[in-house]
Amino acid sequence: MEERDIFDIFGDEFENHSTKKKRRMEDVEEQIITDNESRTRDLLNQLEKAVAEIEDDEAEEPEIVESEIVEISNEISVREEPKNDENINFGKTFREIPRVQILSLPAVGCTHQVAVPPNHTYVPPERRTSQDALKFPFPLDGFQQEAIACVEDGQSVLVSAHTSSGKTVVALYAISLAFRERQRVVYTSPIKALSNQKYRELCQKFLDVGLLTGDVTINPSGNCLVMTTEILRSMLYRGSELLREVGWVIFDEIHYMRDKERGVVWEESIILLPDNVRYIFLSATIPNASQFAEWITFLHKQNCHVISTEFRPVPLQHYIYPAGGDGIYLVLNKDDEFMENCFHRAMKTIDKGTSLTSADMRGRKGGVVQKFGINFYLAGSALHKLIRLIMEKNLSPVIVFSFSRKECEVQAMEISSLDLTDSREKFLIQDIFHNAIALLSEEDRKLPQIESLLPILRNGIGIHHSGLLPIIKEALFATETFSMGLNMPAKTVLFTAVRKFDGKVHRWLSSGEYIQMSGRAGRRGLDLRGVVILMLESSIGADVAKNIIKGEADPLNSEFRLTYNMVLNLFRVEGINPEFMLERSFFQFQKYSTMPALYEKAEKIRIEVENLIVPKENKLLEYWNVKKDIECLQEKMLAYISKPNYIAPFLMPGRLLHIRTQRDVFGWGVLINFRRLYCRRRNLEVNPEFVVDVLLPVSPASYTGRGDIECLRPAVPGQKAKIETVPILLHCISKISSIRVRYPHDLRSDDSRNSVLNTLTEVKRRFPESKGGIPLLDPIADMNINDEKFIEMHNQVQLLKTSIDEMDITKDPLFKDYLEKFEEKQQLLNKLTEANENLRNTRNLIHLDELHRRKRVLRALGYANKQDVITLKGRVACEISVADELLLTEMLFEGVFNELSTEKCASLLSCFVCQEKVESAELPPEFRDLLNSLHKIAKRIAQATLEANLEIDETDYLQSFKPYMMQVVHAWCLGESFFKITGMTTIFEGSIIRCIRRLEELLREMASAARAMGNEDLETKFNDACSCMKRDIIFAASLYL
């Protein structure tokens, strides 16, 4: 009898990649048919007539080679002509794109679409006069009625609606329906806190509810199981019997699939689930909801409905509050109209009121201003005033979003003097707080974070951020972690900033982030409107404000990535392999979906190229190539000129410098200052960075108060520029003028800076580009660069310039007209090259090359053989998903943990789960030796990775294992109090708890891994480590349970 895969999940049409069976076109029936279905069909038919099917290569493990689709153009140019077989390859791939029908259905109060498998006739769900699975004590909205009708008909549905709009109603109905049909239902959520909250809510409505989060297991045989997505994935890989009875799976907050770190878990789970399961996806508004539904239909050969609505039960009004101002300005009304006049009035208020005089600053040394800056002081002062205004206008409760844990706490203390509660409320708050902490020991109740919180809580001010103790994470004063979905609505939402640091750069808040957080405003059934207030301490452009406040929600894009745990687990599952996962990923589906538009774009450009006739094209091509050679040499010369030993003597104040980044040309600016910064590099040597401060004209809309060249844009022609001081690295200097200008000593005022802008304008007028432009320093005569290579390049440039002057084409009266057309054609050819490159990348199976290289690593280290059969090492590694499975498995097999004490094992493993970066003292020798043993094995894995041609930076890899919790964990395992271990580090108390809870989860996996390798002593040791850590406040039960 033929072997079947897990739960008969996957269809017979899947052919194992390792057997290299040839696919015929008739086996690939799925089609992408969007709303413009007929136009896409015509394009497909046109391609199918033009190309012929070719046979796939027979190879045991094909290497990834770049596709041979180079160009579509046959024109004379610097590009190669296409080859016939290149277009044949592309045509075959284009025909095999997965295709799905999308139908739009009539609906009231919402949009209703359905994705239908190919060759299926869609039958609309029956309209029931009453839904008998569950009665609701309120009238249902249109989108809820549509979604429930689909659920009652046993069809999958994606519900996309704003926060607090009532999406949970659909999930509740599906659970009730599953109970009625005697089916099991799984409810997944992205975070444990949300799982705990949802479990409590469902227990109040249904009897047989269980909870599985890794930390907590309650009633695991329940008919409704609430679990994290990681638990669901683990059950799928292990072929859990429990899942055979599942009829419905509910994915809450499905938009979390775009998370870079954990989003892949959602994709794995959805791909591995059986075809006979039906799905409920609950999401905030996403613009590409129908594309996601198409993917579900493609995967599971079933209808998937999309019910979406932009309707808000409580309309929002958006205001701007200028820091230092006296009022708020309505900028987006409840009808979604942007109020330009009010916005500009608010910006004028900011320009007038945000600068502190020297008198304002006097007496503030060492305080908030010195530590956080003037803008932060203004924000704190403005926040105090604004909260008072909110209370006076009866707009509470209010959530205040901040984008830093430190700022969150400091700003809460800034307003702690406000008394927002009456005596009865104070008594209730104190009573609830004492009841909550009654679970803690006497010593834990005296923790500074707990003792300091009660006074501000009594005043009606709460705090919520990731560094807080879990037991006191109930707040309306929140960082953006709060927007995940915890059920805490308010009447007003207030943003203290519009810029955030995302771990790499400071950037504007995205419209999607703003929509998600501002959606907390307005309580259904309580408020007629919700209020959103944006507090600004510096002016921003109207375009920036519109993009944030009035922009679209972020699309749901795949963050699929390969992991060794995924590859090894797929080796274990009968009938499928890692290629299977790649082919069915949402990432690959999105790539294929773009192919029709990409091909059409390439065709359009090709036709433009064909129709553009350039006179004397061959002679112009000769001129063009010489010109490019000159530019290439000049770039190399510029690298010499910008070396500090040559350029430094000429970096004098007032010097005109031409600034250019990889992305933008800013043009001429005035040098103000030249300084040297010392940066410690990875090789531990101290190397200087040279920075010049340049007064530079920039676009006002791009200026944020911080002179970050990466965030700035040049002023567009006709736009009034804003001149600001911008720090510039030497490689961004493209020209050095021989001209120096005078400028005011004090450049703080707008008038002073504008006078410099006027001087720049005058210099450009005197030295127009038509007459050679602003004079430059001669690198040899003026800068005394006498390097032989530089002089040789300089001479080559002069010779090439002479050859250009001698070309006949340059003497033609119509030369400029010819050149303009030629350059236009070259730009089109560049676009065509880019379009073809996009087609080439889209056609290839994404990540396949990476997969083959990861397989080489696994074979080299002994986790699988050449036939992809998993070894004992591989089975052990499959047990580990919390941290680096390869390194931990190597450490197990090399006996690193064998002679270590229980406490030392836990201490060493903390390096894998610590995510905080802190300044800490030198590690004691005993801990440093442990870390060195980890690094020794990690270097070997890094070497194997490099030998397989996978990118890895060994230094970064080693630094990813952070030792900052080693001593803390060791002390905790020895029985020290939480109060004492918090004094051993500057890490937030909540972060310590999160790390140790994560460590306990890793220790449980290590015990399973030790059991898989047959080492009972190690299994006991890891279990003992779990036991000695699970105590007191770190593992205090959630208030929801």
Automatic annotation (TrEMBL):
Q: Which domain of life is it from?
A: Eukaryota
Please give the chief subcellular localization of this protein: nucleus
The record's section on Pfam families has:
DEAD, DSHCT, MTR4-like_stalk, MTR4_beta-barrel
Asked if Transport is a keyword of the record, the answer is: no
Location relative to the cell? Nucleus
For this UniProt entry, which segments traverse the membrane? none
Q: Which residues form the Helicase C-terminal domain?
A: 382-574
Keyword Membrane present in the record's keywords: the answer is: no
- Keywords from the UniProt entry: ATP-binding, Coiled coil, Helicase, Hydrolase, Nucleotide-binding, Nucleus
GO CC annotations? Answer: nucleus
Coiled-coil residue windows: 815-845
Among the GO molecular function terms of this UniProt record, one is: hydrolase activity
UniProt GO BP = maturation of 5.8S rRNA; RNA catabolic process
| Stretches assigned to the Helicase ATP-binding domain | 148-304
The protein's matches in InterPro entries, at most eight in alphabetical order, are given as:
Beta-barrel_MTR4 (IPR025696), DEAD/DEAH_box_helicase_dom (IPR011545), Helicase_ATP-bd (IPR014001), Helicase_C-like (IPR001650), MTR4-like_stalk (IPR048392), P-loop_NTPase (IPR027417), RNA-DNA_Helicase (IPR050699), SKI2-like (IPR016438)
Question: What is this protein identified as?
Answer: Superkiller viralicidic activity 2-like 2
